[in-house]
Amino acid sequence: MGARVDGRSERKVANREIILSAARQLIDTNGSHGFSMRELAAKADVSVATLYNLFDSREAIVSACFEKVITDLRPDFDAFRGVSDLSVLCGVLVASSDLILNSVSGAMYLKLSEDLSVVKPFLVEHRASEGFAPELEAAIRRGELNEHADVDVLRTVLEAVVGTAMRLEALGSISKEERRHRIRSGARLALLAEATDLGRNSLMLDRSRQ
């Protein structure tokens, strides 16, 4: 009996992965609203009944796709923690955008950036909503940012710089090179507004490397 239950559980896990993979392909091609449950079942080579046995609705499948993307990327983002100075932080912001856009299609990214009802609760649950705030706080402790710098405001500005450039590339309005340039230069300008002499020296070093 136990072996039979384990076998069913394994099939459920396997079917779930197959369905999410197929759904992601359809989202990449048609957008998150561009497929029906019947089309997804055909793509995944499962029955519609199997879809509903594993997911309550099409929206639940789309949400599960987004959560899987975020979960898969989380270890890579954790590797960016602990930057040594502000010039490195500018590079990390560019590298973060590279990581995301190399991992998902433009359509998937646009949906992720628009559907905060899916993304935000997941980020809060996994304590990832603080973004790069710890790196900014560390820069204050190192003396690179003014001690009274508003970390929340600065984080929001950096997120806007990165998010806007990524969205423009996902829409096909700018190239990869232009997106990277906008993020690095925009981040540098935002950080310069709160930088000490030490921080400005670091940011000028970053500029000289380009």
From TrEMBL:
Q: Which GO terms describe its molecular function?
A: DNA-binding transcription factor activity; transcription cis-regulatory region binding
Keyword DNA-binding in the entry? The reply is yes
Q: InterPro entries from the entry?
A: Homeodomain-like_sf, HTH-type_TetR-like_transc_reg, HTH_TetR
Signal peptide per UniProt: none
UniProt keyword annotations, A-Z: DNA-binding
Which is an annotated Pfam family here? TetR_N
Q: Which SUPFAM superfamilies does its entry note?
A: Homeodomain-like (SSF46689)
Residues in HTH tetR-type domain copies: 13-73
Task: State what protein this is by name.
Answer: Unannotated protein
- In its UniProt entry, the species of origin is given as freshwater metagenome
